[in-house]
Amino acid sequence: MSSPISSVTGAPFARIMSVAGYRPSRVVTNEEVCERIDSSDEWIRERSGIIERRYAAADESVSDMATIAATNAIRKAGIDPAQVGLVLVASVTHPYPTPSAAAEVAFRIGAIGAAATDISSACAGFCYGIAIADALVRSGGTTYAVVIGVEKLSDWTDHTDRGTAFIFADGAGAVVIGPSEISAIGPVVWGSDGEQREAINMTQSLVEYRQDPGPHFPTLTMQGQQVFRWAVGDMAKTAQAALDAAHVAAEDLDAFIPHQANMRITDAMIRALKLPAHVPVARDIAYTGNTSAASIPLAMERMLDDGQAPHGGTALLIGFGAGLVFASQVVTLP
Ligand code: COA
To answer: How far apart are CA 267 and CA 228, in angstroms?
Structure first.
């Protein structure tokens, strides 16, 4: 049967061409966090692996951080910003429901007229973005895409809440995705479990707050043990499924870069995946905290810059968080 609609196809494959991060300058130690919660440096290190984290300045926005990371990723990729046809900003902390952070960032980085939208997939947002950009480069929706994970979680954290105050932090990481002659982004294994939407949530909606402004502005709330059990129980299976889908064995990985949720979750996933000791594992959380959508590209940049993982090496990524949502894929490092 003939159709009046013609179609386009894109590149045979897509690849990550570059990665660049932005870390705010203000270092926040565990001692400083403990000025507002009943805890200790020792407890925080042992239970989360976090030694310190970064907070953005009061006048430093999600869009500001995203713009810096994206500008540097485009420079490293060696393309002109005007060639970028799609900008995806993965974030849950851009403070405006509309307009999107992505439209502003596209304009500010010089991707004038590019398609632009935000992705609300919390800590899985960066891996969601990679999957979407990969599909669009291959299907002809764009030649080059910029995917940015960025958060200013310090604005949405209750700094007196023992369950979250020590975990969340700020930062941005960006990649350029472009055409490739060889396979460099494996099939995504992704999904959601909305039945567990209360596990990481807001204390109130902004509309509820407007109708009945209480003493506390809405902030993030987390059922820590529920999230821990889900991450440890299910996420290793998701990561294994992404390895299987890409036909890559764990022993052939050059890096494992999970979302930097909590060092104990990372360690549990390593055990469940039976990851050989020679595979380097991202542990950026120690000095960066949990930056949600930004954590994977920040950790990727650090591993490459420190020489822990080789350029062109094979890495397993997995993001998971509020929704609950998750996404995992095997990629070739830029
Ligand atoms: N400092 C010191 N003690 C604390 C504390 C803190 N910040 N928070 C809780 N505790 C204490 C509790 O009072 C309790 O003490 P008790 O045994 O004497 O009653 C004990 O630690 C256990 O409390 P619980 O709330 O069950 O903590 P936990 O063992 O579940 O640890 C987390 C809390 C948040 C570290 C843990 O649940 C976790 O890591 N969850 C996953 C979070 C995560 O990674 N989120 C990101 C997802 S994207």
So the answer is: 12
Give CA–CA dist 295/80, Å, rounded: 26
* pLDDT at residue 214, rounded to an integer: 83
**What pTM was estimated for this model as a whole?**
0.96
Instruction: State the Cα–Cα distance between residues 222 and 129, nearest whole angstrom.
Output: 24
Name the residue type at position 98.
Answer: T
End-to-end, the C-alpha distance of the chain in Å comes to 43
Give the three-state DSSP class for 28.
strand
Cα separation of 133 and 179, whole Å?
Answer: 11
The dihedral of CA 102, 107, 111, 112: what is its sign?
positive
In angstroms, the CA 117 to CA 7 distance is 23
What is the distance in A from the centroid of ligand 1 to the CA of 154?
19
Does residue 265's CB lie within 6 angstroms of at least one atom of ligand 1? yes
* Per-residue pLDDT reduced to its tens digit, 249-288: 999 999 999 999 999 999 999 999 999 999 999 999 999 9
Catalytic residue among 123, 127, 262, 278: 123
Kindly list the distances between the CA atom of residue 302 and the CA atoms of 52, 143, 211, 309, in Å, as whole numbers in the listed order.
Answer: 16, 27, 44, 9
Amino acid at 250: A
290 tagged catalytic: yes
The one-letter code for the residue type at 73 is: A
Pocket test for ligand 1, best of 123, 127, 162 (most atoms within 8 A of CB): 162
Residue type (1 letter), 301: E
DSSP assigned state of 287: H
CA 26, chain centre distance (Å): 21
- Angle in degrees, 0-180, between the axes of helices 41-48 and 263-273, rounded to the nearest 10: 30
